[in-house]
Batch of 4 targets.
Target 1
Amino acid sequence: MKGKNFRVSLIKYPTLYKNPLPGTETVEIYHIEPKEKPIGSLILLHGLGTMNIPFLLWMGIHIANAGVRTFLPILPGNLTRTADGSVSGREYFSTDVKKMVLFWEHAVVDVLTTLHIAKEKNWWHENNCLVGYCLGGMISVILSALTEEFRKTVVITSGGDIATLMWYSPTLAYFRRDIEKGLGKEYRMDDKNWLLETFEKDIKKLDSFKNIQEMITSQIHPILKIDPIAYARFVQTNRITFIEALFDRALPLRTRKILWNALGKPKRYIIPTGHVTWLPFQYFLGSLILKEMNIKEFKRKVKLLEKPKIEEK
């Protein structure tokens, strides 16, 4: 796919994750390359499911038009990488804890591999940024704790405290329907009060861990070990920008507040939209991201209705 000032290619390769489920074995990365010499690099992580991905791809094209080389990896379990017999995005919040942990681990490995390839090919600029929306924002916090390669991280409409999300987010009603079917008995996922109380107790233990390895090998609940709030204290606050939607119904207020606090109360923008209603205005959010990268403005505007040219190679 190409436009006047950019070119998009789709990179595919076998995942390096050791336990991929059928349907998720092949990594797919949209590589959006500006035709002029790049002045920055960005990895853009999408949210749960499928519908948000085209909007973020367009935002990536806007950003590339400002001279920033952009990568949008499709996270395992979503869109074209949905596990056989499953639904896009479903496995990240599941009654099957072992499968749930597998998908979070797989996503982290695939994004780190994307970064490695970008560096190996000399595509990674010293002026760089990691941007994550919703699920992608949660994963971006984990990544920022695991590596210092990202100069800036922008977390968009995201939260923490997975137990609260699973029991109170309208988006995750499917999890509660599965509980009603008798699923989730392992790790007592089906016991709402026990799970929320256990999470509250285990969250208080997070500050006592000296490093990530100590946290992972501890006795806290296994889904807290994939929760961004468990990694937030290992992230440099000055590298984080937090964007919160004022009318976000998908993320309970507690989940947004607890992640922002865990990150050390970084710079925050509160936008007067809902969880998904900002998506048609991705041009303006792209401008904010460029500002965080010290790139003042777009060099050109992409016409949203312009039909891109597709080339098969």
Target 2
Amino acid sequence: MGHLDPETEPLYLSVGDAQRILAHVQAEWPLEACGLLGGIGRRVLAVYPTRNELASPVRYRVHPDDLIRVMLELEARGWELVGIYHSHPHGPPVPSAIDVAEAYYPEAVYVIAAPVRGEWNLRAFRIVDGKALEVPLQWVE
């Protein structure tokens, strides 16, 4: 990891971590849920569900208290912010214009959960300079 092209290097996610993300977004539905992904490089090692400060069905902002708590934990573990996830309760699983405009962490992978034909779907993107580029999801143990 780390020597691959950042545009094509996958996000490494365990099935258990994906299930934690989906349980959180389902619990918050019909509002947007959001959370942070901690780990090393592109390898997610922990999912941190957070509160959506906006409590909105169409926007999210990680609650500042949660952001500080998670960032301090990541620092204590020697990890980094690998990604940020949120849901689009009514689809589609692609970044909205607001998501692109408010993507303040260009190194992070943005994971979006949205229902597609009744099933929650996860897709991952890097958002850099106003452009969203899809990142492959690689399932790991």
Target 3
Amino acid sequence: MKNKFTVALSGSLFLIAFSNQAHAYLDPGTGSMILQVVLGGIAMGFATLSVYFQRVKAFFSSRGKSTKKDAGR
């Protein structure tokens, strides 16, 4: 697995280092699209963390209830 990562990283660096000029034009809408993708990714990350946090919280709260119930008997 580490070997594949090393090959991919070195190949990417090689392509970046020896690339030609593109002479491309990026219109103003492209920056807005990139910003939307970045903000959407951040929102997705927070939503994912929230779901896993709720699962962990539910696990520990249900675990605490069962020990309180057993202690009362």
Target 4
Amino acid sequence: MRDLARRIDSATPPDRDRAVDALRALAILGVVLGHWLVTALVADSGAIRVTSPLSYLPGLAPVSWMLQTLAVFFLVGGYVGTRSHAAARARGEAYRRWLGVRMARLFRPVAAVSAVWAVTAGAMLAAGAGLPTVHALLRLVWSPLWFLVVFAALTAATPLVARLHPLWPLAVVLHADLVRFGLGGPPEAGWINVVAGWLVPYCLGASWARNGLPGRATGWALLASGAAAAAGLVLGAGYPASMVGVPGAGTSNLGPPSLAAVTFGLAQCGGALLLLGPLRRALRRPAAWAAVALVNLSAMTVFLWHQTAMIAVTATGLLADSPLPGLHTVPDGAGWVAARLAWLPVFTGALVVCWSAFRTYERRRAPGGASRVVREGRPAESEAMRRA
């Protein structure tokens, strides 16, 4: 392992900003951990239903503040996408080719997980599983795919939005919420925020790529103003305290993204910018950088299969004589939370199995395998991103 870490470290281009890769890895792992902690599969009368401890324990809302990290992922996406496109243009590379490389990295793993679950759903129905159970599991697996669709759309629009000031999409989110909440307009007005809401951190990342790293004052300003705005909206305007969707709740901060979620995302982006310096210092150690690089190599695989890993453990646990605490029971108390924390290493082990089986769909294996990836210095992105 030490030899692998040294090879990855020595093969990394010296101008690569390792902290950017670390932010992406932290964002993905935050989403995974968040889903595992706030999603509960309850065995009830022979069926499986999906619920959340946030429905029973609203005091756990701060967990969603720490682990709903999508804004950081879009911040990094805007930064990397803008730099990558600029480098492609400098090389004379056609937009279609540039986009094709990036879309393949996103959607090859989607095809794999979709095929596996199509077969699994058919087998479950043939074996007598109830339609509500199958529907609940499919929704749990496929609902996160909205994130990839939005990210793909913003990536494709990078040449158009790279110079867009983040305040413009923020204004769109503000007016959409004003229409649906303040003026009693149709709830459908909020769906424009699915694009506009995540365009805010994406444009912030693009601005970072064009103009260089913002000063620490900018990071502190984003952190303070975003947190103050989000707190004001929650405490004074009736927005939900949870930054993730809660089953049964009348309003969600994510479906579609609300002004509270977007302003909170700005606070997260400010915190991420402040972390860049400490992360750069920490990632000088080959072992730390190797861990970040390996996570980035399989970021989409981890994201797409983490719910399947949790479902597999839950299904295996059904072989027990009685429901297992933290796995099949109603998440209505501190005991469930403690039991769920104990299950996290098991979920991780199941995810490692999924990663071993399906990681090749994210990145086509080149002749020479992993050693060639290391030699070419591509531990965390495609060749186009490496050149960027």
